[in-house]
Amino acid sequence: MYACCASKTYGLLTGILDKMHRWIATNNDYRFDEERQWFAEYHTFQGMDIERDAIVKVYIPIMLKESARNVQLCKAKTI
């Protein structure tokens, strides 16, 4: 499972990565999956200014925290 954030490609990816790391760190259900590497995809379209208009999607690997997994299992058992 990955957390994904899409943005225009202005400047460095540092701001996007910081935003995603803050979200994951404060989220009660997910944590970083340190076994896997983050990656980025760049999307361009014909006729666009690549430096100004390209889109980047950043993916950071995450996994359910144990407590969130237990809650989901309990919900599944009661249904």
Report on this model:
With 79 residues, the protein is of the alpha+beta class. The protein has one domain. It has helices at 14-26, 50-53, 66-78, and strands at 2-8, 30-32, 39-43, 55-64. Strands 1, 2, 3 and 4 form a 4-stranded antiparallel beta sheet that branches. The longest helix is centred in the first third of the chain and has 13 residues, at 14-26.
Alpha carbon gap, first and last residue: 24 Å
Low-confidence stretches: none
What kind of sheet is the major sheet?
Answer: 4 strands, antiparallel
Q: Roughly what fraction of the amino acids lie in strands?
A: 25-35%
Rg calculated over all Cα atoms: 16 Å
Work out the oligomeric state of the chains in this entry.
Answer: single chain
- Kindly give the count of domains: 1
Fraction of residues in helices?
Answer: 25-40%
Number of helices: 3
Q: What is the typical, i.e. mean, pLDDT? A: 83
Helix/strand-derived category reads alpha+beta
Can you describe this structure in just a few lines?
38% of the residues lie in helices and 32% in strands.
Provide keyphrases for this structure.
single chain; alpha+beta; 79 residues; 3 helices; elongated; 4-stranded antiparallel sheet
What secondary-structure arrangement, pairings included, does this model have?
Layout: E1 2-8, H1 14-26, E2 30-32, E3 39-43, H2 50-53, E4 55-64, H3 66-78
Antiparallel strand pairs: 1-4, 2-4, 3-4
